[in-house]
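**User:**
Everyone, produce one record:

**Assistant:**
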Amino acid sequence: QWQFVESGGGSVQPGGSLRLSCTASGFTLNYYDIAWFRQAPGKEREGVSWISGSGETTKYVDSAKGRFTISRDNAKNTVYLQMDNLEPEDAAVYYCAGSPSGVVVGNFWDEGQYVYWGQGIEVTVSS
């Protein structure tokens, strides 16, 4: 049975760092494009970052550029989101989502284009 498992969340102070992991089981991750989304309390879920199946192409929303880095290790069936210089506004539940490579086109933050979702992991940023 397929599943995504997110890990690495937790609580940090502003300016701190966290690395989220999204590990797939039940299928081979390198055939899938992966995105990270997040949902803060009282807000809609929003896209954060995206990486192609090969890892050659990445995308970020403006608020993540320069602070977050998405990467993948297909040998470990895992995608990472390194988050540096975290701000209180980054506090949210983070989700990884995936679709077969090439399926997601146009708006990469359109949730409806993603077939598989993780259960989410919480990130808290506060002093």
Observations:
- The chain has a mean pLDDT of 95.
- The longest strand covers residues 92-100.
- The CA atoms of residues 99 and 114 lie 5 Å apart.
